[in-house]
Amino acid sequence: RAQRRTAKLASNQPLLPEDLDEPEDSVPFALLKVFLVLLLFVALAGRFVTGSVWWGYDGKWVHWRTYWPERMSVFSEMELAKYDGSDPELPIYLGLDGLVFDVSASRRIYGPGGSYSHFAGTDAARAFSTGCFALHRTHDLRGLTAQELAAVEHWKQFFLKSEKYFQVGTVLHEPIPEGTPLLGGCDEHGNALPEEVVERRKRGEEL
């Protein structure tokens, strides 16, 4: 282009737009190109070193649902039970005080045989607080102390802010029939405690 322009100027020919030099890149555009090249280099290096362009990171920030959330679904208790991990083709969901989270990222933990499989496919909010996994796989929070209710809220915030898990909807529970007895506590082995022991614990009395 420079040679053609020089020849035309020497022969007094008019210059055309294609004879002119292309404008230099603006500083922002040049920085953007450098950034993209560096990003590509880091991704390729991560793929080579760790087998992942994200250098092994699998948190929520590399999942598209973080930026384009799916429409929230409303589950019945029966529908939620389908997502307990028994069907490998379905995701694993757990309920917590009415909220439903996708915990498929930890299928080894929440799936069948996992250490927290009792939480999958149900809203076991009470067990999150009391630790009575066998007896308290229920959303019934009646009779819990302020400290125990705070523990439930703590776990809700944990899942809401998690880098691996996503809220996918809510679960509708049937109203607890009037007159339903309150659930008791359990010992370290998951066995039900006598009612008088539960009451003494609530009052902070030594056993």
Automatic annotation (TrEMBL):
InterPro entries: Cyt_B5-like_heme/steroid-bd, Cyt_B5-like_heme/steroid_sf, MAPR/NEUFC/NENF-like. Residues 75-172 form the Cytochrome b5 heme-binding domain. Pfam families: Cyt-b5. GO terms for cellular component: endomembrane system; membrane. Coiled coil: none annotated. Keywords: Membrane, Transmembrane, Transmembrane helix. The chain crosses the membrane at residues 34-57. Belongs to the cytochrome b5 family. MAPR subfamily. This is Cytochrome b5. It comes from Dacryopinax primogenitus (strain DJM 731).
